[in-house]
């Protein structure tokens, strides 16, 4: 009886639920951002090259992307809570595996397993927000959740750089294991079930295929999906290449690199707070388009500086601050805009969104990883290309009539 009461309390849209969801959604970015400063160290530790080490990032995203398709269907069928618990248990065990990896191949395999567990937090966290806050409140909740979640990449590289210097690269994965262990206990005791419309057919292959066909046939969903995917990919291009560019070209230490990375992430926090503040006043469509054009401009400026030979730390960090600010505006509004029409298959819609987002980002990460060590211009060039594609796909696919449909016209139950 006590457990049921606790579940009912925490499935209401409370600050406590928001705080718990923030830690769960942050599991994905924290899994990458915490150990980014140690990437150059791993090259020497395992006697390999940068592209091989970068696979620990890209393989993570690939596993993260594929597993989301399963999590969405499973959570629509069995509920969010039990699937979240299973994901956290997998993440904990895989993090321990990372700690004891003795070769780069073992670390790559452990990172893939870690990704399978990590994606439970973001994909189910988004679904719980839609379940609990409803279609209108979800845009604001996701924006503020994203701002709070950004503390992970803000603090992660700084803390990861310090841990690498003081205790070695394994310390980052020890911390991730401890973090997920605490989350597992909290979810077990406090998280209630938010899926009020379980679908007994959700895990059938035919039903999953039908759901995805319905979603991909919706131009508005697809436009928001691609805008989100390329916006995140611009950010991931920086995540993949920045340690090699800033530490290699500009000679920063891992700790100082962490501080610079945190400065860039502050742009993301600024964007999410602006999105949460302005969404009810201007609507998600206007914010999404404005954020997309802002990112395209900033990405072009960064590339222009590099091609012109103006290569200073500020010419990377200042434009990237604006790019991440645009990502903070685009992502919560694109997510809420895409999920709003689908209350009965939120898990599938969220999973497909996460799958494409991570798949595109993984490919972008591979491109940056293979090119950045020999030519640092690959990073700003990739960031600029991703940023330009955001408004391109949104303008090409989302119907113009919906832009004029009012602040909440498309956010109805």
Supply database-style keywords.
single chain, 413 residues, mainly alpha, Growth Hormone, Chain: A, 82% helix, 0% strand, globular, disordered N terminus
Q: Describe it for me?
A:
This protein is mainly α and 413 residues long. It has a single domain (12-192, 211-400), classed as MFS general substrate transporter like domains (Growth Hormone, Chain: A, Up-down Bundle). It is built from 18 helices and no strands. The protein is globular and about 55 Å long. The two termini are 31 Å apart. 59% of the residues are buried. The model is unreliable at 1-9 and 403-413 (pLDDT under 50).
Write the layout of secondary structure elements.
Blueprint: H1 2-10, H2 15-25, H3 27-33, H4 39-45, H5 50-78, H6 80-99, H7 104-118, H8 120-149, H9 151-167, H10 170-190, H11 205-217, H12 219-249, H13 254-282, H14 284-307, H15 313-339, H16 346-371, H17 378-397, H18 400-403
Compact overview of the structure:
The chain has helices at 2-10, 15-25, 27-33, 39-45, 50-78, 80-99, 104-118, 120-149, 151-167, 170-190, 205-217, 219-249, 254-282, 284-307, 313-339, 346-371, 378-397, 400-403.
Rg over CA atoms: 20 Å
- The top level CATH class name: Mainly Alpha
Instruction: Indicate the structural class.
Output: mainly alpha
Number of strands: 0
Quick check: average pLDDT? Answer: 80
CATH-level-4 superfamily name: MFS general substrate transporter like domains
Determine the CATH topology.
Answer: Growth Hormone, Chain: A
Largest sheet, strands/sense/barrel: none
| Low-pLDDT regions | 1-9, 403-413
Number of helices: 18
CATH architecture: Up-down Bundle
**Overall domain count:** 1
Helix content: over 70%
Ends apart, CA distance between termini? 31 Å
